[in-house]
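Subject: sequence -> structure tokens, single chain

Hey, anyone have a minute? Need the predicted structure for the following. Not urgent.
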Amino acid sequence: MILPSIMLMGECSTDAAVLPGVSEERRRAMLAVARALFLEQGYARTSMSAVAARIGGSKTTLWTYFPSKEALFLAVASDLIEEYAGHIAAQLVFDGPLDKCLQRFGRNLLTALTSPPITALMRVVTAEAKAIPGLGIRFHEQGLAHGWQRMASFLTEAQARGLVRADADCFRAAQHLIGMFQSGSYQRHLMSDSGSPGAQTIEADVDAAVDAFCRAYGTQAAA
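Reply:
Had a minute. Here:
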């Protein structure tokens, strides 16, 4: 799950704001090159030398911005996630019936998760979780777990409006809903090279998930 305020860099942060003299434009150019290499070749096969060579500079310059390959990868991951985060979160608003709001959010979520860049990132993180200490749990906590909390807040508001059962645990309900969104074509997508499931398949998965969710947690007022 991808939502705003996701920062994967933690102690490895190399923001230009904390490095005097660092050019943000130069940093962004380095991230763009590093993103392409990491997502094409994976973490293990991408070297700082290769990134520097493609940029057209020296490793020393690259290290000025990113002190290690790990820091560079974490910056790439954070940058990529934030690129998608705002758009997805913007869809989680009350501007119609509960089921329609959840359907819109689910479609945008799955469209983002099955996009080539996010798919590649997920595969790299999964493959390198053991090689980069703390990467897997950090990615989980700042990604999926943050998404659960954001959805739980939305469902708490729905509960206050009488649209979600009064006895429901909204955090658990959020986990169930997001899990159902990701339980169909998304799982097949991650394990295959067949490309995105497509809008029609995503819509069917989302509609089925929202229908099951509303039957389990909704009230008559939400019908």
